[in-house]
């Protein structure tokens, strides 16, 4: 794990730190090929430069965000923003269902919208058909 992500996690209060550490461990275990770093002040994991999953501390919870999550067909994930992102919010580490998280992370690997080139395409998202695109 990137040292800046560890520092981010360590800076949280006790319960939020547990949530962040658990999320980071599960993401790293299930997406070992993903690059991870602090991006826009939050921990984010990328495949081939495309952001796929990250989390952030909100006022009342920790938000787990999947950039392409609206395409996962998962009722538990809530729509976030105007593009294809979906989220889950946690106030306790016990709320994290590792089986759900593992399934979502696999879908994050397989189902991706091209956020890497969204600025170049003037806000238009295109679906990436193959995992491990270039």
UniProtKB/TrEMBL annotation:
SUPFAM superfamilies: YdhG-like. Residues 17-108 form the YdhG-like domain. InterPro entries: YdhG-like (IPR014922). Pfam families: DUF1801. Gene3D superfamilies: 3.90.1150.200. This is YdhG-like domain-containing protein. It comes from Parafilimonas terrae.
